[in-house]
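Workshop exercise sheet. Pairs work together: one partner reads the sequence aloud, the other fills in the structure field after running the prediction. Swap roles for the next sheet.
Pair: D.N. / O.F.
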Amino acid sequence: SGESSDVVSKEMFLFEDAKHAHHDLIPWVCLRPEATAPVMRALLARGGVGRNAASGASEALFWYSGPMFRNETPSRGRWRQFSQFGVEAFSNQLARHPHQDVFLIDLAVQALEKLGVWPGKGSVQLRVNSLGDAESRGRYRDALLEFLTPKLSQLSEDTQKRIARGAVLRVLDSKDEKIKK
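Structure field:
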């Protein structure tokens, strides 16, 4: 989500490339922190998703895999370098429909089964969380902002920054115990 995301502001490994600092090139190197944003940028750079002539649908499915890096203090069981596999699905037909989510969940289960790491039926519990469609999300965002505004001075600096830049729903991702209450 651009220049003001948590990844950009807090978690990116960014360092000067001393070997190339004297060139006209940008002398900074960034280790890839995640893959969703680059996939979106690539999609937008090529003009978005093409239309299927037969159905009129605009659809695309992208997958990626590789090492990612986060410059954060790792919590238990996590590392600064990690491998990420992801699938991004885009469709003008399914975007407002839960079928796309069901498809991606099923794809993940199939991949884990084929890799031999799926623990089997009955041993995994899936909890799906949704804020609904764009209209419902907007109403929820407005209500959350109205609730948090009088409490701004009690919130952490990171939370205040998220709210100031309009990322009100990201407050729900906070690990701050005050926010969780």
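Discussion prompt: The CA atoms of residues 16 and 28 lie 4 Å apart. What would you look at next?
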